[in-house]
Amino acid sequence: MAKVSSKGTVKKQKVVVDAFGEVHISASFNNIIISLTNKNGEVVSWSSAGKMGFRGSKKNTPYAAQVAAEDAVKKAYDSGIRKAKVYVKGPGNGRESAIRTIHNFGIEITEIVDVTPIPHNGCRPPKKRRV
Q1: Nearest CA to 49 among 103, 3, 95?
Q2: What distance in Å separates the CA atoms of residue 116 and residue 96, rounded to the nearest whole number?
């Protein structure tokens, strides 16, 4: 949480960064969001296809995921993250290309985990129709 000083300005909280972190990739049908966190889950850097300037259907392309991953990884690598565990969520197109880009920029990937939510019994069906 951001801290408010006595003058009313907001100061950013400094995040403690180890060499080991986590990468969370959320790939929906409309966008892809990549967050790099430390072991406690505090975000070190993040990026998305929309933040990188892609609009409409171009946001859910492997190229947009690659550009977003580059942006997030550059900041995290400068902060000190060298190894990461990757959590992938969602059915989007850019999942594999984002992981490949993270690996190519010097962050060693130790494990890839798919955390896509799966419905066990689905939604409740509508009531019977009365005529």
Answers
A1: 95
A2: 14
d(CA 42, CA 33): 16
Q: C-alpha angle 62/91/81, rounded to 5°?
A: 65
Cα dihedral 65, 100, 37, 112 sign: positive
Q: What is the pTM of this model?
A: 0.81
- The whole-angstrom separation of Cα 91 and Cα 14 is 33
pLDDT at residue 32 in the model: 94
The answer to whether the CB of 46 falls within 8 A of the CB of 36 is: yes
pLDDT in tens, 111-128: 999 999 888 888 888 999
Phi, psi of 127 (to 5 degrees): -65, 155
* Model confidence pLDDT, tens digit, residues 5-27: 677 777 777 777 778 999 999 99
Instruction: Give ∠ CA 26-71-67 in degrees, rounded to 5.
Output: 70
Q: What is the mean pLDDT of the chain?
A: 88
Region of 82 on the Ramachandran plot (φ > 0 left; ψ -120 to 50 alpha; else beta): alpha
